[in-house]
Amino acid sequence: MSTIPSDLKYAKSHEWVRTEADGSVTVGITDYAQAALGDITFVQLPKVGTKFKQGDTFGVVESVKAASDLYAPVAGTVTAVNELLNKTPETLNQDSYTAGWIMKLGSAGTNPELLDADGYAKVVEA
Hints:
With 126 residues, this protein is α+β, with helices and mostly antiparallel strands. It is built from four helices and nine strands; from the N terminus they run βββαβββββααβα. The strands form two sheets. The chain has a six-stranded antiparallel sheet. Strands 4-6-7 form a three-stranded antiparallel sheet. It has helices spanning 31-37, 84-87, 91-94, 117-125, and strands at residues 9-10, 15-19, 25-29, 40-44, 51-52, 57-63, 67-71, 76-81, 103-106.
């Protein structure tokens, strides 16, 4: 079974969101998503300053199995990206919830459709 931290919120498209103390959010992909993709070989990161609406495609993760679009779980402006993923995309396989974060959004909107850990576990089990 995949790891599903209880302090995060989850999109049905397998991205996670962590709200930071300043109201910004950090976004990544779930352990379930990285496991389903297999060995990750490339991550297309968004550009800092780009504005996304909830549901917009913000990047791509490529693996030996497939390429998968990434969707913004909330609206906001990119304030930082994880440059480590340019050199070592496999970090997503090794540590998808901490070292493998993908982007940070400032002025983040809310998304009432985001799931808690229990709700996301039901999506993964289905």
